Amino acid sequence: MGGNEEWATDAAVLVVIVSKTTFDHNGEPAPVHSFDTGAAWQNLALEGARRGLAVHGMAGFDYERAAEVLDVPEEYEVEAMAAIGERAPPESLPEELRDREEPSDRKPLEEIVHRGGFE
Ligand SMILES: Cc1cc2nc3c(=O)[nH]c(=O)nc-3n(C[C@H](O)[C@H](O)[C@H](O)COP(=O)(O)O)c2cc1C
């Protein structure tokens, strides 16, 4: 979705990242299932980058269809998708995507870290 098909189709692997919403030991809801899975995804992305691969997270896909095709059980939640593979030359991308092949800026800390509550 959202133009992802244009560049993601040729990725070596498309990974659907799924979290388990309940604890294994007692079946109770696991409030940090998304947080935990996000941390695991970050490790995957860092290790991929260390190996020189492109690891690109995506939210632009059909979540319901992914769950259906992969028979994801009810107590699991589809969180995101990632395309992993060797980086293609920028010339292989449509022109509007080529500009995005530069490292992006990061927000200054004062914009994202607050002392006390939100204003
Ligand atoms: C959970 C998640 C979902 C994302 N969804 C998309 C997406 O659907 N399509 C897309 O082109 N980029 C998406 N992005 C952004 C890219 O993966 C990547 O973060 C972005 O190109 C900027 O990379 P950089 O901040 O490391 O430079 C998503 C990122 C994350 C973490």
UniProtKB/TrEMBL annotation:
GO terms for molecular function: oxidoreductase activity. Residues 3-85 form the Nitroreductase domain. InterPro entries: Nitroreductase, Nitroreductase-like. Residues 95-119 have a biased composition (Basic and acidic residues). Gene3D superfamilies: NADH Oxidase (3.40.109.10). Residues 84-119 are annotated as: Disordered. It comes from Natronococcus jeotgali DSM 18795. This is Nitroreductase.
